[in-house]
Each structure stands twice: as C-alpha cells, then as structure tokens.
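Attaching the record inline, Q. Sequence:
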Amino acid sequence: MSSIKAYLKWIILGITLFFVISTFRNHWQAVTEITITSQGWIFLFLALIVTLLAHIWSAFVWIRILYLFKQSCSYQWGLKVYLVTNIYKYLPGNFGHFYGRINAVSKQGISLSVASLSVLLEPLLMSAAALFIALLSHSIGIIETTRNFNILFLQCFLLISVLVGIHPFIINGLLRFIKKIKSKENQETETIYLQKYPGIILMGESIFLLLRGLGFIFALMAFMSISFQQIPIIISAFSFAWLLGLVIPGAPGGLGVFEATIIALLETSSLPIGIVLTTIAIFRIISILAEVMGAGLGYLGFKR
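Structure, as predicted:
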C-alpha cells in the first residue's frame, strides 16, 4: 500500500503540474504583458504580511487545542514550535511538521496521545472549515464546485462526520479505549479528556482560511481592482482549492493541486486569466516566504 500511495502521489503531482504548465503555456503572452506598479508592490507586501499573520494565528489556534485537553504551555513556546515546524512540511513525505510537533509536545511531558490528537485535530478542523465554506458557497450559488450529486452528498457526509467525530463523547471514548489497551500492557497512562466541543477552534480555523484568502486577494489586487461582489467568489474558490491541496496526496503544501483547482474555478469568472495565473505563481512564492519568515520569527523572536 505504501508503494501504491507513493506512485499515486507522483501521478497526481504529474497530472496537476501538466495542467498548470499547459495553462501557463496557452496564456503565456497575456502573462508577459502584466506589469507591477508601485501600488502593486504595496499590495504584494500586504499579502505577505497577512499570510504571515495567518500562520501566527494558526499557531495560537493549535495552542488552544492543547488547552482543550487541560495541557498548560506558554504561548511563546507554542508559537516557536508551530512556526519552526511549519516549514518541515516541505521535507520528503509531507509529514515532517506533524512529527516535529508531536516530538516537541512529548518533550514537554505531555502524553503521546494528546500530542498526536492535537496534531490530528488541527488539519481535521481546517478541512471542516474549508469544506463548510465551499459547501455554503455552492449552496447559495457563489461558486460551483461540482455538478455531481454523489460528490456533493459525499462532501456533506464528510463534513457531518468530522463535526460529529470531534465531539467530546467520541474523542473521550477513543481516549478511554487507548487507556484500556495500555493498562492491559502494564503501561501507566495519564487520564486526559476533551473538556468541551471544539467549536471555538473550528471558528479559529475558519478565520485562518479567511486570512489566507485575504492574502490571495491582496496579491490579486496588485494587478487589478476588485469589486466587493467578487470577494466572496475569490474566498470561496480559494477555500475549496486549499482544501483539495490539503487532502489530495501530492507535493508538499498542496503544490500543483491548489494551483490547478483555483485555475479551474476562476477561469470561468470575470477575472482575466493572465492576471489569475500571475497571481497564483506569485502567491505561491509569498506563501513559502511567509512560512520561512514565520520560522525565523519563531526561532529568533521566541528563542528564550
């Protein structure tokens, strides 16, 4: 299965990159005609700052997940761990950031179960927030994510499953089951339970996505003016593309999958395709640069 998964990731990456490169090649002349004004550089700088703030906000949300399990840690420590490990996602395997956080939390004396759950809940709640935004946008006609009723039903089923699965009754039952197994193996385990439904965390992840979407809008505004009516369309398309980049196996950080999806969603909108392609390419650079800046801030700013 691991061999099949590895081949599947390369196949998906190859298909998405072929689509992105082919789209760029077909519209290359429109891309080369685009220039960046002095005002455009200001918007790109704002996109970088907002994207960096989104990652910092996501670090705070992750710390709150630990607090839900009554685990005390300083915000400085949590910010450092999250921001520094955030760039580990670009290591081979696309799970280095998860391992880094689990390892760091375990070294703080927190049980491995809580460390693993905190790392598991974060992308799960991010996916739920993105799926909720995408389904809401589809239901009110902002964007059309699919015309297939079965896919829509599957999306609704997955969202409901996640919202039910993160209920304290389910998670605490899982923790009791793990504790029971470890007690049979004569391993001492700490009694840890989820105190309340993580609704505030889900809201926090939604804010994270809105911040990321705002960063993309600022990058787009570097090349064209955007009306208020276009903002919901862009946010919705961004959220759905970000969701697919998170859940579909492929390159680290959703590289290729995110770009291919948002091109497909915005290609039919009133936005010029040349500007969309230029924005997508520059926003990928901005995202990586923001993560590197966040890692530097986490290491230097919170070194003590």
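The radius of gyration is 20 Å. The CA atoms of residues 143 and 268 lie 10 Å apart.

More tomorrow.
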